[in-house]
Structure formats: C-alpha cells, structure tokens
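Morning run. Coffee first, then this:
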Amino acid sequence: MTASAVPGNPAEPPTPPGPGVEPPFAAPPTQRDPKKLWIGLGIGALAVVLCCAGGIFGFGVLVAGTVKETEIGARQLAADYLGALKDEDYPAAYRLLCGDITGRQSARAFAREASRDPVVGFTIGELVNDPSELVVRASVRYTRQGTRSREYIITSGLDGLAICGER
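And here it is:
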C-alpha cells in the first residue's frame, strides 16, 4: 500500500458522499438599482453616438481628400498635356487623351493638326466650378494665334484621368 492510499493521509481528500459532487449554489440575485441601470444605458448610448459621429466625420475627411486629390491630378494632367504639345512630343500628348477622342482621330492626324500652330507657352489656371464635369482653365500661347484662353474637359476612367475635350 502506498503512502497516499493510507487513510487519514492529508495528501488525499476524502471521497464525497453520494453519487457525485454538485457545484455550490449561485448567490441569489439582489435588488437592482434603477439609477445605475439608466446611467449604464446612457453611457452606452453616448458611446454609440460618438462612434457614429466619428465614422461620419472620417468618411467626410476621406471624401474631401479624394476630391482635392482629383483636382490636383486634373491640373497636373492639363500641364502634362500642354507641356508635351510645347515640346512637340505629340505621341505623349496623344496618350493623355480619352478613348472617345483617340477613337475618332489617329495619332498621325492629331500630330498633324497640333503642329499647324504649335504651343510655345502656357499657364494652368483654376478648375471651373461646374458640378457636372471636371474642367481646367489654361492660358495657352500659340505661334500664330497668340495667347488664347482654353478649357480642358477631364474625365476619369479605368486608366485614370484623361483629357476628353477642349473648348
């Protein structure tokens, strides 16, 4: 017989009586204080309102940032286009046009037309305040026509921004 099997040995607890051990009963529920309940509900509601307000604010910041980035990109696109025309890099300028224009006019015809009165200088202006389309104003100086005010219509497609019209 081992030392742990000896009756009265403190290392082994006594066998519980009956078919099995039952857990102790839980403490009975106490009377709840309605004041604490309403305080807890108020704190929870405040947390939900703050989370919703933070989400709406964050979404607004995201949208505003995206709009500003698009405006900067549109102005840069117009500058790249006019810069390519000024440098007489007509293939580069042609690549910045949207599919509607390139589908109607070949690169060779575009270069021929653009080389008739080359661009010698330009200044990019502000965006036109038009909610239906993105338009960039520019002052363009040509060899023959002199300085003319132009507006470039910018579209956004799968390939990014592109020039889709001039007026």
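The chain has a mean pLDDT of 84. Good start to the day.
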